[in-house]
Each structure stands twice: as structure tokens, then as C-alpha cells.
Write a structure and sequence with these properties.
The complex is a heterodimer of chains A (69) and B (242). Chain A has helices spanning 2-6, 14-25, 30-42, and strands at 12-13, 46-49, 57-60. Chain A has 69 residues and is α+β, with helices and mostly antiparallel strands. In chain B, helix 4 packs antiparallel against helix 5 (84-90) and helix 10 (166-188) runs antiparallel to helix 11. The chains are: A alpha+beta (69), B mainly alpha (242).
């Protein structure tokens, strides 16, 4: 849930995503984060995005109200 | 940490392992994070979150090319040592195997690192030019360097494509290219007086063929998209780094 909130203002790389989710929900581990990322991706709510710094990024899908590129 | 990630199902690792490890490299895990990673692995087994998608048959082509190239390379040198009378008949397979090795490479790595690869090809070309100048220490260095750079570079790219980790890639490079060259070049240049026994050829050349067989097998089993299969997202405008 907090992942969707964190991605509301645009694509984030996973490092920033982890930091944002931790800021919203306290101590979230990488295993929990990726469990949620995998579920949300499978549900079609988020999708991978290319990122200029070479790190993996995610964004909301259009279905979820993300900005089409 | 890599060992902990191996606790995850194969399909999950195929999809997320690389980025997960990159995340942990930037945010070194605490003891709590390690426990959370194990918990995440158990969760991923109980509730599969990533399914292995069947690869189209075209994804097997690079692996098959690499596998055939390695087998041909190995066969030529085995023939050279054990059936020397037939060796020259098979010698023409060496350029063909090199061609197949090269053809097994174009894929996502090549698409993403075109500039780096262009520079590498330029360096190899320069080495070839210098190696053909009148004999001197420089020509030897250029010849050996170009050989190591070209063969090692191709094997490394294929290994990256087969999703072989950096430490294993280095082991492969040392065992298949650097050590055999360290043995083979001095012998070929007449140092050590071992040329009467052709077994040194096997030590110098066979590991490279076997390495391609191994990499090709892994590449064929796991599959890898060719340039034609790559999604257009790889050339999308870059999202601003956040």
C-alpha cells in the first residue's frame, strides 16, 4: 500500500522506494519490500521503468493512474 | 548475501535477483534485514509472486550458438592432439566457431553497452595492427593482449548474458583464458622445449572450448532475448533519476 503512495508522484528507483516506504511505515526490510513489489507488479498496479542512473525503478501503471510515457 | 537470495524460488530470482542485490549493495542490510530476507524467501515459496514465463524458441538460439561453437572449438583441438592426420581438415572449424561465438552475443547487454563494445572492438583492431608490425616486444604484447582481450571479452559477454555472477565470471576467465594463455604462449614461442608433446595444446586451448560449452548450456536452458526480441522500453527516453 505504501509503495503505491510513494510512487504517486512519479517513478522511483528501488533505493528511494525503500527509503520512502520506511519513512511512511517504519522498519520495512528488503524482503518485505520486494514481496510487495512482486505482488503489485503481478497485479498490474506497478511496472518497471528505465532510470537514468542505471538503478531499477518502478512506476504506477496507467491503470493505476500513473503518467504514460 | 548472495547465498540468502538463493533461498528464493528460481522464477523470483530470474526476475528480481539482480536488482535486489543492487539494492542491498546500496543499503547494507542489518541483522533485521537478513531475517526479513529469509522471511521474504519463505513467503515467495508459499505464495509464488513471479512465474517463470516460457521462453520463445528464439531465446534458445544464442545458447545453441555458444554451445555449438564451444563443441567445435574443443573438437578441433582434441583432434589435433589425438588424431593429428585429420586435424587440418577440421581446422577450418575454428573461424566458424569464433563466428558462432560472436553471433551468440548480440542481446540486451550489447544493446545497453554499445559504446563500450565499440571501444573494445577498436582496441582489438589496434592490437591486430600493432601485432603485424615488424617483430618487437611491442608486437608480442599487442598480439597476446589482443588475444586475451578478444577471447576473454567474448566469453565474459556470453557469461553476463547467461546471468553468471561476477565472481564466477572471473573464475571462468582465469581458468579458460588467462591461465591457458600463460601456459600456451611461452610454449608456443619455444620456451620450455615442450612442443614435442602436443598435450600442451589441450592445456592451452581446450579450456576455452569447454567454457563456451558450459556457458552455452546455461544460456540455452535459461534463454535470452535476441536483439529482435528486446522490448522497446530499452530505448524509451530515460526517466529522470529520482
Amino acid at each position: 500500500m505504501w509503495i503505491l503512495v510513494a510512487l504517486r508522484d512519479g517513478p522511483h528507483n528501488v533505493v528511494r522506494l525503500l527509503d520512502d516506504v520506511r519513512a511512511l511505515d517504519g522498519r520495512v526490510g528488503p524482503g518485505t519490500l520486494y514481496g510487495a513489489v512482486a505482488r503489485l507488479e503481478r497485479l498490474g498496479l506497478i511496472e518497471p521503468a528505465t532510470n537514468g542512473d542505471g538503478r531499477q525503478a518502478y512506476r504506477l501503471t496507467e491503470q493505476r493512474g500513473g503518467v504514460p510515457s | 548475501m548472495t547465498r540468502l537470495v538463493r533461498l528464493y524460488p528460481r522464477a523470483w530470482r530470474d526476475r528480481y535477483e539482480e536488482e535486489f542485490l543492487a539494492l542491498l549493495a546500496e543499503r547494507p542490510p542489518t541483522l533485521g534485514d537478513l531475517v526479513d530476507t529469509v522471511r521474504g524467501a519463505v513467503d515467495a515459496h508459499l505464495n509464488p509472486q513471479a512465474e517463470a514465463e516460457p521462453s520463445p524458441w528464439t531465446h534458445r538460439i544464442p545458447g545453441l550458438f555458444a554451445l555449438i561453437a564451444g563443441a567445435m572449438w574443443s573438437a578441433v583441438f582434441l583432434t589435433f592432439v589425438f588424431w593429428p592426420r585429420d586435424a587440418w581438415t577440421l581446422a577450418s572449424l575454428i573461424p566458424l566457431s569464433l563466428l558462432l561465438m560472436f553471433l551468440s552475443l548480440p542481446g540486451d547487454y550489447m544493446a545497453a553497452h554499445g559504446r563500450r563494445i565499440a571501444v573494445a572492438l577498436g582496441v582489438i583492431g589496434l592490437c591486430i595492427v600493432v601485432a603485424n608490425l615488424p617483430y618487437s616486444l611491442l608486437t608480442v604484447v599487442a598480439g597476446v593482449g589482443g588475444y586475451l582481450f578478444a577471447l576473454g571479452g567474448m566469453l565474459t559477454m556470453a557469461a553476463i548474458r547467461a546471468r553468471i555472477g561476477p565472481s564466477t565470471r572471473w573464475v571462468l576467465l582465469v581458468l579458460a583464458v588467462i591461465l591457458p594463455a600463460a601456459i600456451g604462449f611461452p610454449v608456443a614461442m619455444g620456451i620450455g622445449n615442450l612442443t614435442e608433446n602436443d598435450l600442451w595444446v589441450l592445456v592451452a586451448a581446450l579450456p576455452y572450448g569447454l567454457a563456451w560449452v558450459l556457458v552455452g548450456l546455461r544460456l540455452a536452458v535459461r534463454g535470452s532475448p535476441t536483439l529482435a526480441d528486446l522490448p522497446t522500453s530499452s530505448i524509451e527516453p530515460e526517466v529522470r533519476a529520482s
